[in-house]
Amino acid sequence: MMRLPLFEFRAPRTLEEATRILDGERTNAMPLAGGTDLLPNMKRRQQVPRTLMSLRHIESLNSVALNDSGSRLGACVTLSDIAADSRFRNGLTALAQAASLVATPQIRNMATLGGNICLDTRCNYYDQSYEWRKSIDFCLKKDGTTCWVAPGSSKCMAVSSTDAGPALIALGARVRLVSRSGEREVLLSDLYNNDGIDYIKRRPDEILAEVVLDSLREWKSTYWKLRRRGSFDFPVLSVAAAARLSRDNVVEDARIVVGSAACRPLAATEAAKSLLGRSLNQSSIQEATALAARIAKPLDNTDFDMTWRKRVTAEFVTYALHELRGDDMRKERESFTRCAFD
């Protein structure tokens, strides 16, 4: 049995109190929301904070405000609440789908939106017990000097495995980061670094307090996820797509994001641009698919063969755009679940 290391526990009741604790503790403390990723990491000694600071009792972090002018989602809203809320549809469908596909119902009941956005990067050589990692001489991400995925690289190649991240980037989300010295709002796409260790730009004294979305009234969105099992597993590839369509079904704006293929979610900017001013027909979808697949260069750091994962990128972009067009893609979703089992 893997046991947690010793730590001090703090449970502030206000955001001001929480930022004061982080300001004093800095790198010795870590915020704790659902704990579904942090606590297992602590058992494996991947992360060993001296202080855990719970965010669950801060009322403002549990709020949801959805209206025609935009949305504000507290970082501690659970994934179950998002998946079950009928207001997360059409423009927000990608987020609801992403939330519903995370792990199991029990974990979704605890896991939070902010926690999934800040999810630690993952790798076959990193997400193992302390004894297993020690036996192969640790890796660059924790305690070692070599990235076993790419031994010649000076950079850690651990992969971003957030589900909510790609979906929210496709929706143009921003996040509000709060510290004792003030607050800042940044595009979620700018929050991530393409580095398996230094993967997020949130400072140790900052709390990700809120996700902010502009109006998505005329938008449609979708999220596709590849994993071996139909439940529980982290994504080894994902595609989020969103588009604003005119009454004539012409694309007025679009975003396509590829997840779990690098250390950060990848925006397929050229693929999205190729759709502007065009209807979602076979020609425009094929062109966008080819452009999106170019940016996906998965490595041997997660489940499945990396060349097959790259091919699935093209399939998922195609399916996502067909779904935005209004096609019924339920059979395709089911077939990929069965394929993953095989």
Number of helices: 12
State the distance separating the first and last CA atoms. Answer: 31 Å
Q: pLDDT below 50 for ≥5 consecutive residues: which ranges?
A: none
**What level of helicity do the residues show?**
25-40%
The count of β-strands is 12
Global mean pLDDT: 95
Going across the major beta sheet, what is the strand order?
Answer: 4-5-8-6-7
Question: What's this entry about, in short?
Answer:
It contains twelve helices and twelve strands. With 342 residues, the chain is of the alpha+beta class.
Structure, explained:
By secondary structure, the protein is α+β, with helices and mostly antiparallel strands. It has 12 helices and 12 strands. The two termini are 31 Å apart.
Helices and strands in order, then pairings?
Elements: E1 8-10, H1 15-25, E2 29-32, H2 38-43, E3 51-54, E4 64-67, E5 70-74, H3 79-84, H4 93-100, H5 105-110, H6 113-117, H7 130-135, H8 164-170, E6 174-179, E7 182-187, E8 207-214, E9 219-226, E10 237-245, E11 251-259, E12 266-267, H9 269-273, H10 282-295, H11 306-325, H12 330-341
Parallel strand pairs: 1-3, 2-3
Antiparallel strand pairs: 4-5, 5-8, 6-7, 6-8, 9-10, 10-11, 11-12
Helix pairs in contact: 4-8, 10-11
